[in-house]
Design goal:
Helices cover 0% and strands 52% of the residues. The structure holds calcium ion (CA).
Length: 366
């Protein structure tokens, strides 16, 4: 897509409440495990006053001090000096309000202790405009003492397709993987350069999928966020998924979940039919799991043991994974159903015409 507006400038205005400066000796030294605060603004392409109409999101990437790499060219045996950017120290997102943003995060334990300048890259976008900019007005090195109280790795949650997912659910063959992360100090986003990646393993596959680059921090709190990735063509049957993430102090944690993939996404499959509470003296909820991503209809018929119809309930199910239909315990005549045993049938009709019928029992006690 070609944008109709010229690109604006992300200006890094202050680091740790100190205005940015070109004087290297006056630049702040950002130490490992210290909290960094960055204030920035969005300026017009030619500079000048803040674009106060800009409402959107800013993505900041901080890299360590540059690396002087020496590479010997095998053709002529000449050693070349190559300057490379240092490894990623932090990648986090912030809300831009009226052209301004404020970032805050904890520097990772792993950084080079060179006391030399790092780099900060800013990229911002609103509905209509984009902006970019960078700054080298800080140095990286040292470590703050006395911050060793956080010994816990991040809290990790794995979901397939959406956050209604629970372990054991049926999912589509090509589900969207969501990994929510949260840590009291901060998620390690250094990624491949240092080795503390956000990774997930499926089943016994020894090769993980690297989710680090897809991780995006919450705009409200950079200590939490979500990594996501579409997973393609899983085989039918049971699967496990194990995720690992690190915090900025290099504590890690892992979580394991499991799920099932149906033989085909085209056929509707229902599973784990449940009625709760059962027995009940009042209302009860009939629920089951399913593999459908499009809305489908459910007809529930409740019968007495003599076969007479007690109640019918129709519902369109739009959510993924689990369908839940409540019966209020009222019969066709508007009275409370009598004490006793009941049979219910669940007729499921998918958008493609596929149907499935399952049965269960309910006991009413008074
Ligand atoms: Ca932690």
């Amino acid at each position: 897509m070609r944008l109709a507006f010229p690109e604006l400038i992300v200006s890094i205005d202050a680091i740790n409440d100190q205005s940015v400066t070109d004087s290297i000796s006056a630049m702040p030294l950002l130490k490992a495990l210290s909290t960094v605060k960055i204030n920035g603004s969005i300026l017009p392409p030619s500079g000048g006053a803040i674009d106060t109409t800009f409402q959107g999101k800013a993505l900041l990437t901080m890299t360590d001090s540059d690396i002087n790499a020496r590479i010997v060219d095998p053709a002529d045996d000449v050693t070349h000096q190559i300057l490379e950017f240092g490894g990623t120290l932090n990648r986090s997102s912030y809300r831009v309000v009226n052209g301004k943003f404020e970032a805050s995060f904890v520097m990772p334990k792993d950084l080079s202790f060179t006391n030399e300048q790092g780099r900060l890259f800013g990229y911002a976008f609103s509905d209509k405009k984009t902006a970019k900019g960078s700054s080298r007005a800080f140095k990286v090195g040292g470590i703050v003492s006395g911050t060793g109280s956080d010994r816990k790795g991040p809290v990790i949650d794995i979901f397939m397709d959406d956050r209604s997912f629970r372990a054991g659910n049926l999912v589509r063959k090509s589900p969207l993987l969501l990994v929510d992360l949260e840590d009291e100090t901060g998620i390690n986003t250094t990624g491949s350069s240092i080795g503390h990646k956000i990774e997930i393993w499926f089943d016994d596959n020894p090769t993980p999928i690297d989710l680090t680059s897809s991780f995006e921090t919450s705009l409200d709190d950079s200590r939490k966020g979500t990594a996501q990735k579409q997973i393609f063509d899983l085989t039918s049957g049971g699967h496990t998924a194990r995720a690992r993430a690190w915090d900025v102090l290099n504590n890690y944690s892992e979580i394991l979940t499991n799920f099932r993939v149906a033989a085909t996404d085209k056929t509707i499959i229902t599973d784990n039919l449940l009625c709760y509470p059962n027995p009940t003296s009042n209302s009860t909820t009939i629920s089951f799991q399913h593999n459908q991503s499009l809305p489908f209809t459910v007809e529930i018929h409740i019968f007495a043991t003599d076969g007479s119809l007690v109640r019918s309930i129709n519902k369109t199910i739009e959510g993924l994974h689990t369908a839940a239909i409540e019966w209020d315990g009222i019969n066709i005549d508007g009275a409370r159903a009598a004490q006793g045993n009941y049979i219910y049938s669940v007729d499921v009709r998918a958008a493609n015409g596929d149907v499935e019928k399952v049965y269960g029992t309910i006991q009413i006690t008074r």
